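User: Sequence recovery, please. Input:
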């Protein structure tokens, strides 16, 4: 195979578990490469940037033979943006490949048989569906104003390009971004430099309650007061009266994260609300909230239906975040016990229960593994367990402990088919059989896919 400087011709043979394409160099069956683009049946030119003994990794430079499933990308930034890698693939085809990936992972890697694989619950809105976007600052001396503000370049995490129009959140979010970029230029504010750890502005985050119309702008900087903040707020809210709150989060960490070790509310209440399945939820600058406000209703509806609740049920909501699933489930059962690591999410969960006049929920702060182990006596038993872990999935001992509570059904929501296969195998080893899997497309035009799985005792 050629060196990384020259492009080699590859045939795409499949889509891998992380959404990358699996390719073979034409005329050479000895080794596969994972490429950033490409669809089964296509022939592409690609440059390899990383080699290992078993496989290589590469970047497609040209598509030589196109799949009929390709469409023209609708986004002006598509060729460089690291965000939506499937904007040039028809929506039906996106969904087909996402479903196939889940089935392949479970059958081939997990050896699961006799599982009912349902069709994908597709998204009605494939444009402007996100309720949150984070745009990063980057120092770039060659740019006219010395910085860029936007999203990451595909495959180059350290590089940011200026977003003019992103099709993920809203027209308003694009206008806010553009106004803020100009404000920074006119007022000579500095961007944070990740290499030298100098400068000020790290991120601007824009959150929208899609069902409430409330808008939050959160500016993340290093630690010092926002310059001329009264003037900034006055100008910003005059231009955008739709903004209901502006927060300023600060951290001096070397790693560039959109999180505040301290927060100042510059305008409004410091939170917004979103309505999901008729319930109101409070969202703070640093709270977790499912990012597709439309499709989350389909996801939760499915999870609740799959649980087949009885009015007498005691339900565990593991990795409960701000209590959203548990609060939506509360009217169908006797009691909900939520467990969550983040203190701020537990505070939000209690507030959300109160906001919705829900009185049969209890939220415990702590790791799932530790809490299930240490509070075994106190927690007694569960009839149904709802599980919605982060991308990395569950700790093996968390699976072990969850399986000890005698639940007659476990409903597992996963945003990562890879970690789900591992956890499903662990549940199988601990006496639970995987019965049914339904993919839910929360992120059209990306390779991500969510799923709802049902386990019953064997
Ligand atoms: C995918 S989110 C789900 C949140 C919530 N169920 C929802 O739908 O909004 C995962 C949550 O797990 C929490 N978390 C991560 N590791 C945890 C652990 N070891 N124990 C408990 N919670 C954890 C995160 O803080 C986050 O709120």
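Assistant: Recovered sequence (458 residues):
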């Amino acid at each position: 195979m050629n060196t990384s400087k020259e492009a080699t011709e590859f045939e795409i043979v499949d889509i891998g578990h992380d959404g990358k394409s699996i390719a073979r160099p034409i005329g050479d069956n000895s080794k596969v490469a994972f490429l950033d683009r490409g669809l089964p049946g296509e022939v592409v030119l690609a440059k390899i940037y990383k080699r290992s003994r078993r496989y290589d990794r590469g970047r497609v430079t040209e598509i030589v033979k196109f799949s009929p499933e390709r469409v023209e990308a609708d986004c002006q930034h598509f060729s460089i943006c690291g965000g939506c890698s499937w904007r040039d693939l028809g929506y039906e085809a996106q969904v087909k490949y996402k479903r196939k990936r889940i089935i392949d992972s479970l059958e081939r890697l997990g050896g699961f048989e006799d599982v009912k694989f349902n069709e994908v619950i597709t998204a009605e809105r494939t444009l402007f569906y996100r309720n949150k976007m984070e745009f990063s600052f980057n120092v770039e001396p060659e740019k006219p104003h010395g910085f860029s503000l936007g999203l990451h370049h595909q495959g180059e995490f350290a590089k940011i390009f200026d977003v003019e129009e992103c099709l993920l959140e809203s027209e308003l979010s694009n206008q806010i971004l553009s106004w803020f970029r100009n404000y920074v230029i006119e007022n000579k504010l500095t961007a944070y430099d990740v290499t030298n750890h100098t400068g000020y502005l790290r991120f601007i985050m824009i959150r929208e309650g899609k069902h409430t119309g409330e808008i939050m702008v959160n500016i993340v900087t290093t630690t010092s007061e926002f310059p001329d903040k009264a003037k900034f707020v006055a100008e910003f809210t005059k231009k955008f009266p739709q903004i209901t709150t502006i927060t300023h989060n600060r951290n001096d960490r070397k790693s560039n994260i959109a999180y505040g070790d301290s927060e100042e509310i510059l305008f409004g209440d410091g939170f917004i609300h979103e309505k999901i399945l008729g319930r109101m939820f409070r969202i703070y600058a640093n709270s977790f909230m499912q990012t597709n406000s439309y499709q989350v209703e389909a996801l939760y509806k499915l999870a609740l239906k799959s649980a087949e609740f009885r009015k007498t049920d005691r339900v565990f909501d593991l990795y409960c975040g701000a209590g959203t699933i548990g609060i939506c489930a509360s009217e169908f059962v006797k009691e909900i016990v939520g467990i969550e690591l983040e203190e701020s999410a537990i505070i939000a969960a209690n507030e959300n229960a109160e906001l919705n006049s829900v009185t049969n929920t209890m939220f415990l702060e702590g790791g799932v593994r530790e809490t299930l182990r240490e509070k075994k006596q106190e927690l007694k038993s569960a009839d149904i367990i709802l599980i919605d872990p982060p991308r990395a999935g569950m700790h093996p001992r968390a699976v072990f402990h969850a399986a000890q509570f005698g639940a007659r059904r476990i409903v597992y929501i996963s945003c990562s088919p890879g970690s789900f296969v591992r956890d499903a195998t662990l549940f199988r080893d601990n006496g639970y059989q995987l019965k049914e899997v339904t993919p839910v497309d929360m992120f059209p035009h990306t390779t991500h896919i969510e799923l709802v799985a049902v386990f019953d005792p064997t």
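The longest strand covers residues 55-65.
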